[in-house]
Write a structure and sequence with these properties.
By secondary structure, this protein is mainly alpha-helical. It has helices spanning about 35-45, 50-65, 65-75, 90-105. It is built from 4 helices and no strands. The radius of gyration is 20 Å and the shape is globular.
Length: about 110
Amino acid sequence: MTSTPHPGPSSVPAGQQPPLPYRQLRRSRSEKMLGGVCGGLGEYSGIDPALWRVGMVALTVAGGAGVVVYLLLWVLMPPAPADPARPDTRLDQAVDSLHEKLTGPRSAPPAV
């Protein structure tokens, strides 16, 4: 007769994957050309940011909607956590303050 050890509270049963970490849609601070919107969309979706940029240009050429969509996302998407190696520009600080005025102060992501 063999006994099997009881799984601990942090172990995952056989055949199941551990839960994925909580992901948030945020503007990228590392993968950015203008405001980090396409970089953030790329990090969130797993699609190359260059494809998002091509899509924004296509929307702009097709009728100008790309500029409006990009500006709205730039203001409404929260920024990623600050990177000490890359200080914010004045434009980034202005957009961050506008974002806080529109959506309220930034809160910490929920614990996993």
